[in-house]
Amino acid sequence: MIFDKKFLYALEAILDIAINSKGNPIQSHEITKRQGIPKRYLENILQKLVQENILKGTRGPKGGYSLAKEKRNVSLVEIYNVILSIDKKKPQATQTEINKKIITPIISDISNKIVNYLKSITLDDLYRK
Fold first, then answer.
1. What are the pLDDT digits (tens) for 77-122?
2. Closest to 48 measured CA to CA, from 4, 5, 84, 3
3. Phi, psi values for residue 67, rounded to 5°
4. Where are the beta strands (DSSP E) in 9-128?
5. CA–CA dist 62, 60 (Å, integer)
6. What does pTM read for this prediction?
């Protein structure tokens, strides 16, 4: 799979918030119940999205999470970059000649195409589907 499980969970959680908030914050246990996202992943993801101003967190008994920006102003690449920053462990590639001359350039090209595609898709695009 090209995308990390946390990225897919983040998309589900943000879409759940966009669909169900109707002006009120959504509590994480509601998202867990509806989407089946394990709580241990969800809390970490939601907190990171709040730190990066994609979501807004509200404390208290009626608190929860809501979008910090309009759906049309959140691109999938923003969410992807937040999730990448959670686990900064990057696998060490072997530095063979084949890797340097063939594999690394191809992987880099593929990654750039994916990032550019993610830049072109907003949360609003997904919401409308």
1. 999 999 988 876 655 656 899 988 998 899 899 989 999 999 999 9
2. 84
3. -70, 135
4. 55-58, 64-67
5. 5
6. 0.84
Query: Is the distance from CB of 31 to CB of 42 less than 8 angstroms?
Result: yes
Mean pLDDT for all residues in the chain: 90
> Residue 23, SS3?
coil
Dist. CA 54–CA 29, nearest whole Å = 19
Nearest Cα to Cα of residue 55 among 71, 68, 70? 68
Per residue in 48-87, is it b (16+ CB within 10 Å) or e — as a string?
Answer: bbeeeebbebeeeeeebbbbeeebeebbbbbbbebbeeee
Are residues 82 and 10 in contact, defined by beta-carbon separation less than 8 angstroms? yes
SS3 16: helix
pLDDT value of residue 22: 86
The residue type of 42 is: L
Residue type, 114: I
